[in-house]
């Protein structure tokens, strides 16, 4: 199993990440699609080849093709949106009314349930450090009926996957 490959590849100083990765992969707080889609989207957001490959391999056994592609779409569109929205916020109030003008049709037609795609987008936005997008997606998933516990479960997955990617990068470098 690929999550096991990641856990086994982590150095001793990343033991907490190993434990968190294992427990989150068994979480029952989210549906299977929400859980594995969040894993795929956040793995893609780390830009770490090993993390993307290992998580994708296992996730494909849990996700439909549509859900897998939606998770990758969430990572991709949030890579663009998180930069654009953060940049606009940094530029100040004079830019709040400037039209974004970027295509983001996948958000309205992701091919899966809106709440799930928005949850993936929220998790990716936390990795990418976009407060505006994280808050906006949290509002949407809550309106779609997800609980605070489900929202935070996706944040914990994002945090752990980001930590795993960093620990593996460190281990490769030293």
UniProtKB/TrEMBL annotation:
Superkingdom of the organism of origin: Bacteria
Matches recorded under InterPro entries: AhpD, AhpD-like, AhpD_core, CMD-like
Active site: 130 (proton donor), 133 (cysteine sulfenic acid (-soh) intermediate)
Catalytic activity: N(6)-[(R)-dihydrolipoyl]-L-lysyl-[lipoyl-carrier protein] + a hydroperoxide = N(6)-[(R)-lipoyl]-L-lysyl-[lipoyl-carrier protein] + an alcohol + H2O
Disulfide links within the chain: 130-133
Pfam families from the UniProt entry: CMD
Record domain Carboxymuconolactone decarboxylase-like: where: 94-171
Keyword set includes Oxidoreductase: yes
GO MF annotations, alphabetized: disulfide oxidoreductase activity; hydroperoxide reductase activity; peroxiredoxin activity
Gene3D superfamilies hit by this protein: AhpD-like (1.20.1290.10)
EC number, UniProt record: 1.11.1.28
Alphabetical UniProt keywords: Antioxidant, Disulfide bond, Oxidoreductase, Peroxidase, Redox-active center
GO process terms (BP): cell redox homeostasis; response to oxidative stress
Subunit structure comment from the entry: Homotrimer.
Xref: NCBIfam families: ahpD, ahpD_dom
PANTHER family: ALKYL HYDROPEROXIDE REDUCTASE AHPD
Family statement drawn from the similarity comment of this UniProt entry: Belongs to the AhpD family.
Biological role stated in the UniProt entry: Antioxidant protein with alkyl hydroperoxidase activity. Required for the reduction of the AhpC active site cysteine residues and for the regeneration of the AhpC enzyme activity.
Protein name, per record: Alkyl hydroperoxide reductase AhpD
Provenance organism: Corynebacterium terpenotabidum Y-11
